[in-house]
Amino acid sequence: MDRTPGLSVRLKLTLSYAGFLLVAGALLLAVVWVFLLRYVPEGVITPGPSNDWPRGPAPQFIPNRNDLQRAFVPRAVTAMGFLLVFGLLGGWLLAGRMLAPLTRITHATRLASTGSLSQRIRLPGHKDEFRELADAFDTMLERLEAHVTEQQRFAANASHELRTPLAVSKTILDVARTDPNRDTDEMIDRLHAVNTRAIDLTEALLLLSRADRRSFARERVDLSLAAEEATETLLPFAEKHGVTVETSGDITPTIGSQALLLQLTMNLVHNAIVHNVPGGTVRVHTEARPDASVLRVENTGYLLPPELLPTLLEPFQRGTERIRTDEQAGVGLGLAIVHSIVRAHDGTLDLTARPAGGLLVTIRLPGMPQAPYASRAH
């Protein structure tokens, strides 16, 4: 925003300090003047002659108000001039000292506006308004830097993931053009599979972007119904992988997007099925607590090292390094989408590695008052 030039804050503070000092000095001199006037006569008083003068003491001189004015006013003007100079110099120094933290904050802000988000103010000293502002700005820069870094990494990963199916499609088309005797049906099937994967990845990216923007209407949602719908939809997929799915819990109301919360549950159950062992189990449980609505998805599976858990929420992370088919691998955005949906609903997500293998995912969303209910179990 373009602004017309004006006085600096330091100069304004200096003038304020000097003006206050002048007013205080003028009030003090006025009090002294009024006090002196009470003891000085208004006119000239001539004392009577002394009987033994000139041998005795001379008549006493008694000043009047005119004499007081001639003596007091010049000195009062000199004192006010001294207060003005002292107020300007002292106010300039004090204002500079008081505004020094603001100068550091302004410098860091200008650096941040150029893209240098690693700059921190780290203002020393005891807590005050400037320190609180500096600490809040440092926190904002830290979060902004982490967000930008995450977005850059996400964009690089997304570009890489999208480039792979596009490159495979180009290769298939080049082979079909240069080798007319190649089996057309086989190439069409491969091209269809590659394009399906690219479409799934694009839809996942759009869903992730929608969750991050929080551009959705909020309504009452029962997590237990979402869990039932997700398990029923994925039951054939679980049977194909030899995994048993169990659901239990009570009516668990919350406020949010029906579609996004259903997608959250679908992703969790799908991941629990994919990252499992033959003959394994997936348990889905919902619970309404006084302070939150809880959704837990637990599965048997491979042992997970603790240092791997934080990376599972990052985009394009696919858990362990074991070999899987393309169908099982997915697009690597399942838990990243879950995390974004949870944050968009002001909830929390916890990952816990089971000692016997597998993962426990606990989602806590804001709850709401409810009527007495009956529990469900399948």
Protein architecture, described:
The chain has a 6-stranded mixed sheet, with helices on one face. Strands 1-3 form a two-stranded antiparallel sheet. The chain has helices spanning 9-37, 65-113, 129-178, 184-213, 223-240, 258-274, 326-329, 334-344; strands spanning 219-222, 244-249, 253-256, 281-288, 293-299, 348-353, 359-365, 376-377. The protein is elongated, with a radius of gyration of 40 Å. By secondary structure, the chain is of the alpha+beta class. It is built from 8 helices and 8 strands, in the order ααααβαββαββααβββ. The chain folds into 3 domains: 9-46 and 53-116, no CATH class; 152-213, Helix Hairpins (Orthogonal Bundle); 219-320 and 330-377, 2-Layer Sandwich (Heat Shock Protein 90).
Q: Please, how many domains?
A: 3
Secondary-structure element order, as H and E?
HHHHEHEEHEEHHEEE
Compute the number of helices: 8
Largest sheet: 6 strands, mixed
CATH C-level name of the largest domain = Alpha Beta
Strand content: 5-15%
Uncertain segments are: 320-329, 371-378
Q: What oligomeric state do the depicted chains represent? A: single chain
